[in-house]
Each structure stands twice: as structure tokens, then as C-alpha cells.
Amino acid sequence: MPSSPEIKYPYRLEQIAELTGHEDKVWSISWNPHPDHPLLASCSSDKSIRLYAYSPPSTPSSSPSTGSERKDKESEYNFRHVSTIATGHSKTVRSIAWTNDGRTLASASFDSTVGLWERSPSNADASSSSSAGDDVGGNKELGVSGEWELTTTLEGPDSEIKSVAFSTSSSSTSPSPYGNVGGLVATCSRDKSVWIWENVGDGEWETVSVIMGVHSQDVKCLAWYPGEDILASGSYDDTIKLYIDDPQDDWYDFATLEGHTSTVWSLAWEPLPSPSSSTRYLASASDDKSLRIWARTDAPKKGVLGHVNSSDQRWECVKVLKGHERSVYSVSWGHAPSFAADAGWIASTGSDDRINIWSIKALTNPTSHVPLVELIASREDAHGIYDLNAVAWAPHTTTGEMEGVLASCGDDGVVRVWKVVKND
Amino acid sequence: MAPALINANPTIFAPTKQSLRRNDLNARALWIDQRDESDEDTEAEEDIDQQEVFDLIRGISDPEHPLSLEQLHVVSAEQIELSRNRVLVEFTPTVPHCGMSTIIGLSIRVRLMRCLPERFKLDMRVKKGSHQSEDAVNKQLNDKERVAAALENPALVDVVEQCLSTASKRDDMNPLDL
């Protein structure tokens, strides 16, 4: 074990779970965003998806975690394997994503297809109301068990699918009996295309757009803007594109973000700062070993980003973050824990085996677009000698116990869950 | 199989005679076998040098010719850089428009992925000025997602395995293949 090299940072990462079981590289992880379905999913070159149910400690802690509390807290987080989906994909499952209502999981594969999966409720769900669950998970246990069934296969792209992402604008308030109706799912592929499908109800999805000729190389990653139908894509051609639907015509790219000097591996929008405001920033991770933060600098009107004249939008790189020694494969942007007076926390990881945590300080100068960013924790050898492929912040819960919790996955076939805790 | 060879008349070089280093290692390997098992931990941390990496890849066949990468001077020990957990392999395509460069590079990568201890991160590049699409070849060979996808493509894997079939002839004297 290396002797605490991260002591100079104000925070450190404590492992709270080690989840083994995959037989090959784990490429991606995804937390179910809905509070009724506390699940963490992982996908692998072994063509399977593993699902873990979790329950945070039942009593919220009154103060920020410190070393002395650590042992108690560790024992209280409970992650347990509940299902394995043998996807039937003929090649690596590269990317997975949940719908906002937490009911549907998408699997994107190098076999050029996307599977959509839904859980058929177990018997326990049917007779649920009176009998309480058997552990701290309580009734939540009911939202995680049962068999996962393939409901739809999306086909179209010519080659490996690299990323899949659901829009978050629809279905966030009142799920319809048909689930995510009106919701969109996007994929990107080595064939340089971006495909968008729409849920038209009854488990049917229709292609609404095939965007070609925008990127000149593989499209590696996608991210939907929180709460609105604006899509971002990153590519092997080193650029990032932003797309919006023209109701009279088709989806088109209205902005190009240039600055990275190699492949853009991952994108993460700033989570909505509050329900009444709009997201201002996009983070990107690149093979050029840096992260970049991009901002819309033409003073967006409050609330609505997409409905103003898109061609007038000006996006600029406002920050370059250097803290990795090799390719950065993944970036995740979460709300900061309530105990930290920050505007947000960014986690990043990659081929240097390191997880970095960056704090975004609240903007003090209202006329500036440049955020104050600080590296607040750095975990070396997070998966030993192995590359890390993804990091993802857990969704926050009402008790606050999932604040500062993130998952990582790597070439060792392992998923780890960490909590960012304050150094004494 | 290919209707026209990209480089029909490659320059062929005589392979170097087996390195002294190799003999030295063989001798030590025999000796190590007689030691207690408790010594294994220290052996696992033993450094690997240029020559050992070169020995792993010198016998790989060119995809177009029944010749080794060493005979074509595509690889050499001098073009291998090592640090504690990193290997950088440079190679020299026989002609600047060599369309086989990514296959050669992929073969070298697969060979080293299989034979080097897992702790090594492998980077590859073509020799500066040796290929007209130098940056494109370098980028593709170092993109782990593309490499992973390529290795799930049966046709491509067949070609790579053919290139590698000659490389393993040296395995019997290779202490790294455990």
C-alpha cells in the first residue's frame, strides 16, 4: 500500500464496497436515478450486465465524515448483487443507461445493437403493501428484485455502438403507463453517426433522426442536457458537437466546441443547479490527458437554453484541468455534498489508474464565466495496476447518506464504490 | 491473397544472432527452478529490459511476406523504451504508404498484451517520418476501445493470429511466458 500520498488534499476516497463477478473488463457503470429503484448497474466485455441493490446507513450523520467515524459507516453501506442479465449481445457491452423513471435500462454493444430491458416485478412486489422488507432496504427491496426482460432491440448503426443516453426532459414528473413516452434515446457509433429514437408508447421506439456527416470520425460519447432536448457528442475527431431539433426540419448541430487535441472520451453536463435555473457548463474528458470546462458565454436567459435562437449561442472553453498522466476516459459531474460549500463536484478517471475529485466553487463574480476549480482529492491505483474506464456519482437521497458517493470500474473486472471523506 | 502487394520488394535483413542476454536468462531460469518457492515474490518484481521485449516481437510475421518483423527491420531493440510500468514500442513501416501498419501494430500490441506482466501500460507509435499517416496510425493503435473492438472481429483476429503464429516459436526459451 502506498503511504497516503493524498494527504495534502482536503478530502480522500474511502472504499465502501468492492463488487466482483464480471469475467472481463468493466466498461461502464450507471446508477438508477429513481429513488424507488436503488440499483447500480455495470456492463462488461463478458457481455453481461450485473445489478447491485444498495442501502445507505439508516441514520444520517450529523457532521461531515471524519476518520474516526469511518469504521462504523463502512459497515452500514450495503451493496449486494441482485441480478445478472446475460444480454445475448454477441460482443462487448460498452455502455448502459437508465431512463429517468428508473424502469428501463439500455445496453449498447459493439455488436451494433441496443437492448432495452425492463424488470418483470417479482411476487414480492405484488403482495407488497403490508409486509415490510427484511432489512434496512425496507420496501425499497421490492423495487430491485425480479427478472429483467428484453423488451426491444434498436438496430440501425453500421458498427460498434460506443455510447447510449436517454433524454431527461420527458417523463421526469409523471410516468405514463407506457413508461418514458416522448422520451428520446440517442446512440453513437464508429460509423460516425448519431441516432435518435423516440418512445411512441407500448414499448415501441421510432427513429426520429440519423445524424451523419457532422463528426469526421468515430463518435465516442453522448450526454443530454439536463431537462431539455439538447444533445452533446464527443468524438475521435477531437471535437464536441451540440445538437437541437429544428421542428420544421431535422436535428442539426448548432455548435462545435474545439480545443481538445485528441479524442474526446466522455462528457458531463453540470447538473441543474436548482429547478428554476439552467445548466451553464459542460465538462469533457480527453485522450490529451486534460479535462475541459465549456460555458455558454452569450448570457443565456434564465431557464430556457434551447428555445432561443440556437445559432446565436456562443460556447467557449473556460477552464482546462490538468491532473492526469494518461488518457482521461470518464468524467462525472455531481451536486456537491451539503457539508461542502461548493457549487458542484467533478470526478474524473482514466488510464493513469487515478480518480481525481475537483470542486467547483460558486461563482462569486456574476459577470465572469470562469469557474474556480480545485483538485480536492486524488486516489492513486484505485483499481491497482489496471486502467479505470468510468466513474459515476451516486444520486443523492433525502437522508444525505449518498452524498459524496461514487462508483468506478476498470479493466480488472471490478466495480468499486467510494465515499469522499474529509481529511482530519 | 492480396491481389497486389503494397511493398513487393522489401529489403530483407539477416536476423541478429541470439542475444547473449537471452542465454544469460536461460541459464538463470534453470537456476531459479532450483530455488525455494519463497523467492517468487522478488522474481515477480524483476525488471524487464528492451531485449526481452524485443525477443517477444521479433519473430512476428509481416502480413504480406513470409518474413519476420526483425528481418524487415520493422522492429528493433533500440526502438523500445521502458520505464517501471510502461512500455513504448516504436516500429518502422517498410514503406511510407504501408496500409498494413495498423495490422502490424495490432499484432505487436496483442503479442505484448499476452506476454508482458499485466502491470505494463503499452504505448505504440510508428517511427517519426516513416509513414504518411503517422498521426492517424498512432491514434488508432493507442485507442483502447478500437483495439478491443478489433479483437472481437473474427476476420481481423485471423490475420493477427497468422502474424503471431511465428512469434511463439521462441516461447520455449522465453521466461516471461509463464
TrEMBL record, chain A:
What is a single Pfam family found in this protein's UniProt entry?
WD40
Write out the function statement from the record. Essential component of the cytosolic iron-sulfur (Fe/S) protein assembly machinery. Required for the maturation of extramitochondrial Fe/S proteins.
Q: GO cellular component annotations, sorted alphabetically?
A: cytosolic [4Fe-4S] assembly targeting complex
WD repeats span: 19-52, 86-118, 212-243, 257-294, 321-368, 406-424
Organism encoding this protein? Sistotremastrum niveocremeum HHB9708
**Highest rank taxon of the organism:** Eukaryota
UniProt-listed GO biological process terms: iron-sulfur cluster assembly
Q: Which UniProt keywords apply?
A: Repeat, WD repeat
In the record, the note on similarity to other proteins reads: Belongs to the WD repeat CIA1 family.
Gene assigned in the entry: CIA1
Name of protein: Probable cytosolic iron-sulfur protein assembly protein 1
Looking up CDD domains in the UniProt record yields: WD40 (cd00200)
Q: Where is this region: Disordered?
A: 52-75, 119-144
KW Repeat (keyword) present: yes
- What HAMAP family does the record tag this protein with? ciao1
Gene3D superfamilies assigned: YVTN repeat-like/Quinoprotein amine dehydrogenase (2.130.10.10)
Q: Where is the composition biased (Low complexity)?
A: 120-134
TrEMBL record, chain B:
What are the protein's UniProt keywords? Chromosome partition
InterPro entries in the cross-refs: FSCA_dom_sf, MIP18, MIP18-like
Q: Which GO terms describe its biological process?
A: chromosome segregation; protein maturation
Q: Where is the signal peptide?
A: none
Domain MIP18 family-like residues, every copy: 51-111
Species name:
Sistotremastrum niveocremeum HHB9708
Q: Which family does it belong to?
A: Belongs to the MIP18 family.
| Name of the protein this chain belongs to | MIP18 family-like domain-containing protein
Give an example GO cellular component term for this record: intracellular protein-containing complex
